[in-house]
Amino acid sequence: MSDPVFPSIAIVGAGLIGASIARAAAEYGAAGSVILYDASDDVRDRANGLDLGTVSDTLALAVANADCVFLCVPVGALSAVAADAVPHMKTGAILTDVGSVKGEAAAALTAAGDGRIHIIPGHPIAGTEQSGPEAGFATLFRDAWHILTPGNDTSPDYLAAVDALTRFWQALGAKVETMDAARHDRVLAITSHLPHLIAFNIVATAFDMETVEQGEVVKYSAGGFRDFTRIAASDPVMWRDVFLTNKDAVLECLGRFSEDLAALQRAIRWGDGDMLMREFSRARTIRKAIIDAGQDSSEVNFGRNPHPDPEAEK
Ligand code: NAP
Asked: Does 104 map to a domain?
């Protein structure tokens, strides 16, 4: 196995993403040692029992010797955590994050910077609807995109830091791309943030109708609703912060979405089958493009077996 990219890393926030980085860094030899910190006593206790690395009782001790510090907390907590961490970091170390909104993350990390460390915001386009340290797994980032939104610094030290962070994520199996933070936030607003908002909304509507329909919504959920419930089961704190910090891009997408939805509503009302056929056929071509790009499986029902063998499941 080749030398680790970083002799030592610190992970602040031992949830799904933090625990996955810890597991992947160990599994693929990307870091010599891993130290974790979480603000929650309960999460620290649970992380301790999971063999993720050394769990520190203080943020200061966790980051003190790290060559790279990964902030894996909700976007709304980045400002405070970065400000607490930076004074304890060693000169020349890298401060990065995994937050889903990059404009806000870049502002939070930059405001905390003191000129001694390298700030390189990032976002893994990988995740699940689960949270907490138990949810982390080593292969989460394999074949997934990891977007870095570096600053304008062109000094050799900064470029070497960006290169090291790129190699770290590549060692975890990710495909790394650099992008402007504002562009990232516009793209993610339509590919991730709006779909989550729609899922939260459709589940809320169905929840209200469930009482009227007396259990029939859950009973017949396999008709498409079930897939929305998976997305809508995502962490409420994380998603509250995403919508509060990527407000402009989400509102822009939502405006266009509402107009398109109104057009479909009108087509249904006036029996415009041609319009419905046109729109639904266009949607199929996007699905095909996603499969052709290797972003999803072409298997029927995502390869999910509707009749699992109870013996094989044991
Ligand atoms: P998570 O499983 O809920 O983990 C976040 C952890 O951070 C929790 O243990 C939380 O503790 C802890 N925390 C909160 N405030 C803190 C603070 N001030 N100091 C230290 N620890 C703190 O969430 P996650 O899914 O890993 O998400 C973490 C970040 O990754 C978010 O910024 C999110 O936008 C980003 N992200 C998530 C996904 C995804 O699919 N989940 C994908 C890509 C990126 P408590 O639970 O006690 O508050």
From this structure: yes
In a domain, 167, yes or no: yes
DSSP 39: S
Which residue type sits at 309? D
Classify residue 4 by its DSSP letter. P
16 lines ligand 1 (CB under 6 A): yes
Query: Does ligand 1 lie within 6 Å of residue 100's CB atom?
Result: yes
Beta strand segments in 25-130, E:
31-37, 54-55, 68-71, 94-97, 118-119, 122-124
122 lines ligand 1 (CB under 6 A): no
Task: Using alpha carbons, select from 164, 296, 284, 301 the residue that is nearest to residue 226.
Answer: 301
Distance CA 259, CA 269 (A): 15
**Ligand 1 atom nearest 133 alpha carbon:** 2
Say how many Å lie between the CA of residue 65 and the centre of ligand 1: 22
CB-ligand 1 contact for 99 (6 Å cutoff): yes
Ligand 1 centroid–CA 90 distance in Å is 24
Domain count for the chain, please give it: 2
Query: The domain containing residue 118 runs over which residues?
Result: 6-179
CA 80 – ligand 1 centroid, Å? 14
Let me know whether 201 and 138 are in one domain: no
Residue with tokens 């995740």: 127
- pLDDT values of the chain reduced to their tens digit, one per residue, 314 residues: 679 999 999 999 999 999 999 999 999 999 999 999 999 999 999 999 999 999 999 999 999 999 999 999 999 999 999 999 999 999 999 999 999 999 999 999 999 999 999 999 999 999 999 999 999 999 999 999 999 999 999 999 999 999 999 999 999 999 999 999 999 999 999 999 999 999 999 999 988 887 766 678 888 887 788 889 999 999 999 999 999 999 999 999 999 999 999 999 999 999 999 999 999 999 889 888 888 888 887 777 666 665 655 554 44
84 within domain boundaries: yes
Ligand 1 in reach of 246 Cβ (< 6 A): no
CB of 150 shorter than 6 A to ligand 1: no
